[in-house]
Write a structure and sequence with these properties.
By secondary structure, this protein is an alpha/beta fold. Helices cover about 55% and strands about 5% of the residues.
């Protein structure tokens, strides 16, 4: 994978976050027992983990990395993380502790957040946590005990320059417009840009704009409708796996989406049966996660619901399919993503119709009727995209 191959090994090779890099280095170099840990936050794909790894390399520190999604419970934190924060390095050198994705923890994780809070106060080594959203209510207590550093999206020009460097090292010629297009569509996410570049350029002698059109570069901030398209319209395991990249949906909600839209895409009985069989397997593992609090099983939930469902069909279905919100989500508020979507669309309608946020929410059924009457006309007037149109239509 090019993402791993070209991961920066030094802060000097890390693109963007100039002041944040220096702030993090200064914190680590001057860290003393009792100092606050760092909560490094920013959108997925901006290189938070890579930044910490580069820092450890520059300082010559041993890096101990764990993912909060894998050690969520109080007992696992004690056995797998606390020891690392107390014991010296095997070679006697300094250590840097990384706890990835702390916003993946929740109040159901049997004291996990409280235990992590205690570990932050007692660690004998500098400790960095990463999160996509530092202001998620689940990790408020951790944020209050931390030095908060935000990593913003990487500038398009920086992504563009790095993609060109990768192509040159791979010996692949390129059209400048093609590379620029990939950089722009990555929307500030270096990881997505490099993944997209490898998808379209790997094995080629020259990258052209036509290559991008043929493969179809994905939007790094795709919504769940795009994720469904990737699963149902592909026969590639790799493409199906990428469907959940940067997707803001919890496993329960995501399974609802896939389960209820299988019958809208697959019309052959054998395809449908195989797809539902994979979803049932995903459900089983999702249940085991809840009972055992073993979040390492989450990879199987996503593998079964993406690769399993995608490869259930004998051949790809042609034409456009109208995917719909699961029945539970139609009632709204059942997931953070759906609540955020409601706020986002309501705000947009409020600005266009010159009404308050609450008024725009109550107007949603009326707007749905307008779209039913003349979708093209009113979608253009309100500047609604396909995802927003489908969202509003569920209020009919």
């Amino acid at each position: 994978m090019w993402v791993k191959k070209y991961r920066p090994d030094s802060l000097s090779n890390y693109r963007g976050a100039t002041s944040e890099k220096e702030e993090l280095r200064e914190w680590a170099e001057n860290w003393e027992t009792g100092d606050k840990p760092v909560l490094l936050h920013g959108p997925p794909g901006t290189g938070k983990t890579s930044l910490v790894e580069a820092l450890a390399n520059d300082l010559g520190y041993e890096m101990v990395e764990t993912n909060a999604s894998d050690v969520r419970t109080k007992s696992k934190l004690k056995t797998e993380l606390k020891q690392a924060t107390q014991q010296k390095s095997f070679f006697g050198g300094k250590k840097l502790i990384l706890v990835d994705e702390v916003d993946g923890m929740s109040s159901t994780d049997r004291g996990g957040t409280k235990e992590l809070g205690r570990i932050l106060e007692e660690t004998k080594f500098p400790l960095v946590m990463t999160a996509n959203d530092a202001y998620d209510s689940k990790i408020r207590s951790l944020r209050n005990k931390s030095k908060v550093i935000e990593i913003g999206k990487v500038h398009t020009n920086s992504i563009n320059a790095y993609l060109k460097q990768i192509l040159e090292q791979e010996g692949i010629k390129y059209e400048k417009k093609a590379v620029k297009k990939i950089a722009r569509q990555a929307n500030g996410q270096m990881r997505s840009a490099i993944n997209d570049l490898q998808t379209v350029a790997s094995g080629k002698q020259k990258l052209t704009e036509d290559d991008l059109d043929a493969v179809g570069i994905r939007d790094a901030e795709k919504g769940v409708f795009d994720a469904l398209k990737m699963i149902f319209k592909t026969d590639s395991a790799e493409t199906a796996t990428n469907a959940t990249d940067n997707l803001d949906e919890d496993p329960d909600t995501f399974l609802q989406w896939v389960r209820e839209n299988i019958q809208r895409e697959y019309t052959r009985s054998g395809d449908t049966a195989r797809a539902y069989d994979w979803i049932s397997k995903a459900d089983l593992f999702n249940g085991r996660i809840r009972r055992r609090m073993n979040w390492k099983l989450l990879k199987y939930v996503y593998a079964f619901s993406t690769i399993g469902v995608a490869l259930s069909k004998e051949e790809r279905y042609q034409g456009w399919t109208k995917y719909q919100y699961p029945s539970k989500i139609r009632q709204m508020g059942s997931s953070r993503a759906s609540r955020n979507k409601l706020e986002e669309v309501s705000k947009k309608l409020g600005e266009k119709l010159h009404i308050s946020l609450n008024e725009s929410k109550s107007m949603m059924p009326f707007v749905a009727l307008l779209l039913e009457y003349d979708e093209k006309k009113f979608a253009e007037q309100l500047e609604l995209d396909e995802d927003e149109i489908q969202f509003i239509q569920e209020f009919r």
